[in-house]
Design a protein that fits this description.
By secondary structure, this protein is an alpha/beta fold. It has two domains: 111 residues, Nucleotidyltransferase, domain 5, CATH 3.30.420.40; 176 residues, ATPase, nucleotide binding domain (Nucleotidyltransferase, domain 5, 2-Layer Sandwich), CATH 3.30.420.40. 39% of the residues lie in helices and 20% in strands. It contains eleven helices and twelve strands. Strands 3-2-1-4-7 form a five-stranded mixed beta sheet, with helices on both faces. The model has no long low-confidence stretch (mean pLDDT 94). GO terms for molecular function: ATP binding; glucokinase activity. Keywords: ATP-binding, Kinase, Nucleotide-binding, Transferase. It is an enzyme of class 2 (transferase).
Length: 326
């Protein structure tokens, strides 16, 4: 019987864990609360204890496993085996995560940034269909992403590859990004970004609009509100969505022209707008793409949802243990 993999998707509110087959089937899945008190010092011990308890419950031993894979927020130092800058975990300083797991389990342990891991999961078992070259763009509160080339994650010189949200999309835009720049994709093509656009354009829009009325009345407006109203025929909301998709399509064309992946996968909460978002973004991406790239790079919606991180964490182990990458 082939060995299984322990997969962990570490988040600021909860930590998901799973036992995954080498072929990508989730055999068991559970979660625990992420305790970020005391500078996050309980997080790794809690994960280790939960895993030990589950292995005892399932009457499994370390001999049943190929290794442990972890996806986490923050900056991953692969050489040192540490994670730092994960502020939603209360981990401002470097945490010796690999050392702690190695003390508890006699198993290979691998970890990567959560956005990278989610991209790897979608490439392996999701919308990437196992193809060799796939880029994932995650549209949430911000914009994140991960790049898979020849089945391997691309990290760059200091691990900063895949910062798709900080592609400068329009240097004349006055929306300041959390990174300190202006004109970043994240400021116009995230859940926050589409609200930025709506508030900006509402100042000069004179027609009837439910969204404009909500903004003028000082009500909170969400990305879902804007997409919902656009699909119901609100002309103002439609114009905001159109601008959103143009910016996102332009960014995707840059990715496509540079890397020519077989697929670019749109994930994250905003991608729940579905085909309405996909078709418009794809149209703009194709408009800005080099001909051969347009004919070979497809734009698709993510399929794995919350399981992308777990499956990506499992694939980290698969790839390294089977010698696909170092």
């Amino acid at each position: 019987m082939s060995k299984k993999i322990i997969a962990i998707d570490l988040g600021g509110t909860s930590t998901k864990m799973a036992i995954v087959s080498g072929q990508g089937e989730i055999l068991q899945k559970w979660s625990i609360a992420t305790n970020i008190l005391d500078q996050g010092q309980h997080i790794v011990p809690d994960m280790i204890k939960s895993l030990q308890d589950r292995l005892a419950l399932y009457k499994m031993t370390e001999a049943d496993f190929l290794g442990i894979g972890l996806g986490s927020p923050g900056t991953i130092d692969q050489a040192a085996g540490t994670i730092e800058g994960a502020y939603n975990l209360n981990w401002a300083q470097a945490q010796p995560v690999r050392e702690l797991f190695s003390q508890a389990f006699d198993l290979p342990f691998y970890m990567d940034n959560d956005a990278n891991v989610a991209a790897l999961g979608e490439q392996w078992q999701g919308a990437g269909d196992g193809l060799s070259d796939v880029v994932m763009v995650t549209l949430g509160t911000g914009v994140g992403g991960g790049i898979v080339v020849n089945h391997q994650l691309v990290h760059g010189a200091v691990g900063a590859a895949g910062e798709i949200g900080h592609i400068t999309i329009d240097p004349e835009l006055d929306f300041e990004c959390t990174c300190g720049k202006k004109g970043c994709l994240e400021t116009v093509a995230s859940a926050t970004g589409i609200v930025n656009l709506a508030r900006h354009f509402a100042e000069s829009y004179a027609g009837d609009s439910e969204i404009k009325q909500m903004i003028d009345d000082g009500q909170l407006v969400s990305a879902k509100d804007i997409f919902d109203q656009a699909q119901l025929g609100d002309h103002f909301a439609q114009s905001v969505v159109e601008q959103f998709c143009q910016y996102l399509g332009l960014a995707c064309s840059h990715i496509a022209n540079m890397l020519n992946p077989q697929k670019i996968v749109l994930g994250g909460g905003v991608s729940h707008a579905g085909v309405y978002l996909l078709e418009r973004t794809h149209q703009y991406m194709n408009q800005y793409c080099f001909t051969q790239v347009r004919e070979s790079t497809d734009l698709v919606l993510a399929r794995l949802g919350n399981d992308a991180g777990l499956l990506g964490a499992a694939q980290l182990v698969n790839l390294i243990q089977n010698g696909v990458r170092e």
